[in-house]
Amino acid sequence: MKESYLQHFSISIWSQPKIVIVVFALFVLWSLYWKGRSLWASARAGEKEWFILLLLVNSLGLLDIYYLYIRAKTENQSK
Q1: How many whole angstroms separate alpha carbon 2 and alpha carbon 33?
Q2: What's the confidence (pLDDT) of residue 39?
Q3: Is the pLDDT of residue 14 over 70?
Q4: Phi, psi of 7 (to 5 degrees)
Q5: Long-range contacts of 32-35 (CB under 8 A, 24+ apart)
Q6: CB neighbour burial string for 3-31, b if at least 16 within 10 angstroms, e if fewer
């Protein structure tokens, strides 16, 4: 029986624990960086709803980046 490329790739990537640990560590560091920046910005702006949402939702930094670069900048421009 012939293995597909995807099956071979998934088997080989998970058989390398160092790679998995490094990738996981990079995801954690990426997420912590954006989470910290967005929580700091929302707390300083006094936006309790955004603070709670950003604290509870883990989206690998996507929601945090949205808040920092789109939502917060439009709020600053309107003031």
Answers
A1: 43
A2: 92
A3: no
A4: -65, -40
A5: 33/61, 34/61, 34/64, 34/65, 34/68, 35/61, 35/64
A6: eeeeeeeeeeeeeeeeeeeeeeeeeeeeb
The first and second tokens of residue 52, run together, are 């709670």
Q: HSE on the CB side for 30, CA within 13 Å?
A: 13
Q: Which of 11, 56, 63, 12 is nearest to 37 (CA)?
A: 63
In Å, how far from its chain's centre is CA 49?
A: 19
Instruction: Round to the nearest angstrom and report the end-to-end CA distance of the chain.
Output: 65
Residue 45 one-letter amino acid: A
**Residue 76 identity (one-letter amino acid):** N
